[in-house]
Amino acid sequence: MKSISLIQFLIEERRAGRVNAELSLLIEVVARACKRIAVATNKGALGGVLGEAGTGNIQGEAQKKLDVISNEILLEANAWGGQLAACASEEMEDPQPIPDMYPKGNHLLLFDPLDGSSNIDVNISVGTIFSVLRCPDGISEPKAEHFLQPGTTQLAAGYVVYGPATVLVLTFGHGTHEFTLDREVGSFVLSRRDIRIPEETGEFAINVSNQRHWEPPMQRYIGELLAGTDGPRGKDFNMRWVASMVADVHRIITRGGTFFYPLDAKIKSKGGKLRLMYEANPMAFIVEQAGGAATTGRQRILEVQPTGLHQRVPVFLGSKKEIEVATHYHLVADGAQG
Ligand code: AHG
Q1: Of the candidates 320, 4, 296, 290, which has an alpha carbon nearest to the alpha carbon of residue 170?
Q2: Which of 213, 244, 252 has most ligand 1 atoms within 8 Å of its beta carbon, as the pocket-test mutant?
Q3: Annotation-wise, does 5 bind a ligand?
Q4: How far apart, in whole angstroms, are the C-alpha atoms of residue 301 and residue 316?
Q5: Is CATH 1.10.287.1080 the right assignment for the domain spanning 203-333?
Q6: Where are the domains of the chain?
Q7: Any residues with Cβ below 6 Å from ligand 1, and which?
């Protein structure tokens, strides 16, 4: 079979009228930056990239060296191309404007430069997650408020997993597609077109160490899965938890399954663990475009009206039927459904 590079795929999407030239360039630039992050990640201890950076981010989390390096790579790559009006990142409190010496474009880029960074030092998969929005008309210097658009307005979303292979997964709202990095050639090559997540599954991902802090409907749902053939679901379920959302989501879009980071008593005041704008929204877009579902347990993630750049939400995503069951239990507990 003739291989199709990311560049060729983007040209074809442009010809089909699904992507404009500026958005296509933006994705090319992000993909190129992610190749550099892949190289840095791959060098490990030999590249001096492991360990703490000695700084903290806006979330109050200690930054790893690779968090800082990945953020810088993405900012630098995206500054000069003329496709962006501004960037926002997990690692920075405020959006980063495009320097005055460069032309500005019509897009806003949000990213988590290195998701799952607790896994870097132990050589387990990490990744980059990104989301692209349109810059509101007439805004030449976008502020945080201009990024606060619901996930339904995303023009594109993607993630890159730095695992045994480096893999880019991308959607423009016309299906979800996977590209694998050919290291010898140096380009991403289409490896799966129009990925479909099976509607049913026997596999779930959740950090069970938080169980005692979960809300009652979450306790009920996971309790039923754990009861297996002896419980009301009448079948055994298997569990996985990588603690890198990118790796867990990649497993789900490859063989089905579900991922939950629910609300719990420890994180209730924050609204959840994962960030809406650059984790939950892009992953929800990717998963929905592959036939899966993504909710906060109460509402479709993509319909949440954002109130803050670094806002957190509960995340339930993956195989549709299971996400519907878990969401139904929460709505029933709230009295919103019978
Ligand atoms: P970060 O981006 O700060 O590395 O966060 C990782 C996220 C997500 O990737 C993962 O699913 C989750 O946090 C893991 O959380 P726990 O450590 O609480 O299991």
Answers
A1: 290
A2: 244
A3: no
A4: 9
A5: no
A6: 6-192, 203-333
A7: 61, 112, 115-118, 207, 243-245, 273
